[in-house]
Specification:
single chain, Rossmann fold, six-stranded parallel β-sheet, two-stranded antiparallel ribbon, about 40% helix, binds magnesium ion
Length: about 220
Amino acid sequence: MPEPIPVLPEVLAQIRALPPSSRPLIICDVDEVILHMIAHLEEYLQENGMRFLNHTYRLTGNIARHDSDAPLPGDQVKTHLIKFFDEVSPHQTMVPEADTMLSALSEQWDIVLLTNLPGTHNKPARETLLGGLGIPYPVLTNSGPKGGAVAALSGGRSHPVVFIDDSPTNHRSVQASLPSAVQIQFIADQRFLRSVEPEAHIDLLTGDWRETCRFIEAIL
Ligand SMILES: [Mg+2]
């Protein structure tokens, strides 16, 4: 299990700009939770002569050229991911029912979207896309594991905090920094969802917004 990490100063500034509230809080990731990511990445890989080697939950070591079984080196994967993200992020499609289920939950819960973005220049495009899809909640941008940001967001609230994210790394980080958080691992892609071994700190493993909504409503 990783050590608790401090919140980054640029993330803390965004948290301090939120209106004060004592309502219960849902902290929700965007990629592969609210917006499809893996499906778009698979299209990008096909168009560029590449493919996933398998459906284990990692990217480095798991992407190869069509004519080879050798994984691409990490620096090449990184370069492709940045290019992919710049191309696709204005057009990502929504995971079914993310809009209506979040809207139902927002009657009793505050909702904050916490997303890792390469470069802050992508933030306005992301806010515009989400707003147009009927998902008008504050967007906070982070980089690296999310535990510090989640602990800082929960500061001063006595009610439950729910954390929704696809990434096992982010969930381990939140378990280290805010063990009281209710942790939902949400993976929209069914093949990658099925490949994940649930870890002890995960309270719900799902790829379904209706199930997520029912589970969160039962907390209060
Ligand atoms: Mg994600």
